[in-house]
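Quick one: OmpP1/FadL family transporter from Shewanella septentrionalis, structure tokens please.
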Amino acid sequence: MKTFNKTLIAVSVALASTQTLASGFQLNSQSATGMGRAFAGDAIIADNASVLSRNPAAMALFDKDAVSFGLTYADITVDVKDVNFAGGAVDLGSIDDAGSSKIIPNIFYIHPIDDKFAVGFAAFSNFGTGTDASSLSKSLPANSPAPYDLLGETEVTTVNFNASLSYRINDMFSIGAGLDAVYGEGRLTRNMGTTPLVDVDADGWAFGGIVGATIELDKDNRFGISYRFSPTVNVEGDINTVSMTTIPGVGTVPVATNFDSLDVPLADIFQVAGFHQITPKFALHYTAQHTQWGNFDQITAKDGTATIAAVGVTQAVGDVALKEYQWKDSWLFSLGGTYTINEQFTVRAGYMHDQGVVDEISSISFPDSDRNWYTAGMSYHINPQNTVDFGIAYIKGEKVHLIENSAITGPVNAITESSGMYYSVQYSYQF
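--- reply ---
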């Protein structure tokens, strides 16, 4: 039997080619308070239980039970313009609705055991989103060549279930650690007309963790630091692809490959944050966050079986690198301010600069770039125990001219640009 031609058309974009208006496919949506201040200082401010998403050590700042839960609505706009190939001879046009909108929930609970220990539990999302660029190929005549392997629907969701413990060493230092159980699911389709090239519907679990520390110089000046260890999520389910191979005497025939699972690596996250109460009414806070997207090198399909029906041949193909990314590590920097109007109302605002992660290999389905966040928020304190928070963010990405290689048509040129609005609401209660 001849060796398979492993172009693997079907999954050249793979499960993680998505658009979230944050570096890679990372989410910044864990709380409405954080949204309002561009998540500046979120690893140390500890004004409600949502601090658990950023730094477990900050639970030591609570002397009463606290609970927070909320929703974020992400309205994403992705423009994909002037898509063409064959040296510009074939123009697929443009679309302005490749992004998808999402509702992202979260919940946090912190319980101080005594003056030394506290425990917390949380459910939130650090990664995930979706795009759909399939309409770019619908205007072509049937059976026309097109980069079908680059155009399609991609949906990725992760949910982080966290349990954490903090310990107060003394009045200045606290430490904390937590275990993350990460559930991931993905849906990916690539179609050539009515012929499915790829159909992936898979999910799975993995375990990671987080460690953190706080430094309290005094009640008005403190710092937080944390490091989150993100796992490689192995997802299982229906993972079916079609590629093509040429067999002498037979011609070019389809190869149907079924894989048992996919390995999707997630990025570790390191951050430092500061909080300073400048006056009784005004506080300044900031964050620097480093995300190790350089570890996100490829999507790996595991334990495949390929079938060439035309010649009645089935062969195990083992593990296959479906897509290489060669991403780079990224930084985000945010600065925010909080102003207390009176006992009932607190307002906040912030700015964030978020670096893109795409290096030498770019993607139409992943229009990544540096982004700027402009945010504002407000807290309404119903009484000392009950607070409702609102946050809003406008995110603007840069225009990117890219070339991505298709296994079907060769180089494809495009211009991509993304923007979006986040709307967040949250309720918090301190017992």
